[in-house]
């Protein structure tokens, strides 16, 4: 009798979920081109190939849509960096190498996605939203960098190295290179960026990193 009442399994990716994902991707592109204040439901709908009413149906209002885009990118980045740094307790060098790869993975640091990060941070009216929604992720990320750098300092007996200062410098260098992604767009040299970060680490941890490619 159980077979009589069994229902077919519904695919995890429904048409509604696909539409929602398309709207989020389109919103990312629109923010990158027009800024937060210049992003409108009409522009998003046109970019996504849907009616404005469909955008409202999924997200109710523009402000909710913008916040959802930020949170979506924050989750994507956080999952990527956590996966990269998961081996940090056993292998801090490997974790930093993995973090470099993840940081400059085009899926995470696509120019449009980077532009969204800086749009929220750069526009005063939206900065509090950024801090409320993403601040904890930023703090956790920095704490992980300090922890891994401190572990490497201890393992390598780099007695003159300040792990917190190294972590701040590393985060700042990555931040600068992400800004370059916005400027250069698709022309950004990701291989060169990875090499630059490794060269920084090699200047501090010469027994564990090399400055070459």
Can you describe what's shown?
- The protein is mostly helical.
- It has 2 domains: 13-60, Orthogonal Bundle (Arc Repressor Mutant, subunit A); 69-213, Tetracycline Repressor, domain 2, CATH 1.10.357.10.
- The chain has helices at 2-5, 15-34, 41-48, 52-59, 62-85, 92-103, 111-122, 124-156, 163-184, 190-204.
- α5 runs parallel beside α8 (124-156).
How many strand units?
0
Parts with pLDDT < 50 across at least 5 consecutive residues: 1-12
Number of helices: 10
User: Structural class given helices, strands, pairing?
Assistant: mainly alpha
Mean pLDDT: 88
What number of domains? 2
First-residue to last-residue Cα separation:
64 Å
What share of residues are in beta strands? under 5%
Envelope shape: elongated
Order of helices and strands: HHHHHHHHHH
CATH architecture annotation of the largest domain? Orthogonal Bundle
Main β-sheet description: none
Write the layout of secondary structure elements.
Elements: H1 2-5, H2 15-34, H3 41-48, H4 52-59, H5 62-85, H6 92-103, H7 111-122, H8 124-156, H9 163-184, H10 190-204
């Amino acid at each position: 009798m159980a077979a009589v009442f069994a229902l077919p399994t519904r695919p995890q990716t429904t048409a509604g979920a696909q539409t929602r994902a398309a709207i989020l991707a389109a919103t990312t592109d629109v923010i990158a081109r027009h800024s937060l204040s210049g992003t409108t439901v009409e522009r998003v709908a046109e970019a996504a190939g849907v009616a404005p009413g469909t955008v409202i149906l999924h997200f109710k209002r523009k402000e909710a849509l913008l916040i959802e885009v930020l949170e979506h990118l924050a989750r994507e980045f956080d999952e990527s960096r956590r996966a990269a740094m998961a081996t940090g307790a056993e292998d801090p060098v490997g974790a930093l190498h993995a973090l470099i790869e993840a940081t400059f993975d085009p899926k995470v640091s696509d120019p449009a996605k980077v532009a969204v990060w800086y749009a929220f941070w750069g526009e005063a009216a939206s900065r509090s939203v950024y801090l409320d929604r993403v601040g904890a992720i930023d703090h956790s990320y920095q704490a992980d960098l300090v922890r891994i750098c401190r572990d490497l300092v201890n393992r390598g007996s780099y007695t003159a190295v300040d792990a917190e200062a190294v972590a701040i410098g590393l985060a700042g260098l990555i931040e600068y290179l992400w800004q370059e992604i916005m400027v250069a767009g698709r022309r950004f040299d990701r291989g060169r960026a990875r090499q630059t970060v490794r060269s920084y680490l090699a200047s501090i941890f010469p027994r564990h990193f090399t400055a070459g490619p």
